[in-house]
Amino acid sequence: MIKLIAIDMDGTLLDSNRELPAENILALQRAAQAGVKIVLCTGRPKSGVEPYFNKLGLSDNEYVIMNNGCSVYQTKNWDLIDYAALSYQELNTLSQAVQDFPEVCLTLTGQQNYYAVGETVPELVQYDAGLVFATAQAASLDKVKKSSEIIFQAMYMGEKRQLDAFQRAEAQKLSRLFSAVRSQDYIFEAMPMGVTKGKALRKLSQNLGFRPEEVMALGDAPNDLEMLRFAGVSVAMDNASRLVKEHSRYLTDSNDKAGVAKAIFKHVLS
């Protein structure tokens, strides 16, 4: 019996226009009414999650895993109940890695702010910030450090060709120091070592008293792999990458055809 549903957002819960299909809202409400815990599990920061959570019409006794596992919030008062942060030394290492790639921008996601490290904010970075209802601000590392703000994760952003070159040159080195993943064509992410959606989901499930076989996870991208491996019922979207499909037990329809709702009605509410 499924007692917890962990759901990725972009490419999974949200359609290609980043809207919430009505069918998904209904399915999640039905599951919650049946006593199933709903956990959004996303790379997004709080600014890009809370508006969607409010549209779902769920109770205030849910949890959200954000920043690819770096932060966990309880939705009653949106309290930060668990987190992992990048140290100042790690920020220096991340900055040094991009020195030879001027067309790739290091961005930092803090508890309150979205930073582009440098003197200006590239258009691509501001576009990405807008997707999570935020505004990126240019800042030096010294300014970020002086703010004493918790920095959850870093993202390198650039056009695909430039980011491909950066990844070829730096990914192996970064992967020895951070949890690193290419989450999108224009984003390469770096989290504190050992931090992933899957690790955060495992810890939250244990704290709530749920076994892996009582958990269903749905996703579409490489940063969903570990949570899909953890869940007893793992579901890949039809629009998921080939790797995600290979590591999932079940396949559902695409994010543009309310695949989340179909999976919930089939595996949880049938």
UniProtKB/TrEMBL annotation:
Pfam families, A to Z: Hydrolase_3
CDD domains: HAD_Pase
Gene Ontology terms: cellular component: cytosol
InterPro entries: Cof (IPR000150), HAD-like_sf (IPR036412), HAD-SF_hydro_IIB (IPR006379), HAD_sf (IPR023214)
Lineage top rank: taxon: Bacteria
One annotated GO molecular function: phosphatase activity
SUPFAM superfamilies referenced in this protein's UniProt entry, alphabetically: HAD-like
NCBIfam families to which the protein is assigned, alphabetical: Cof-subfamily, HAD-SF-IIB
The protein's name: Haloacid dehalogenase
Organism the protein comes from: Streptococcus pantholopis
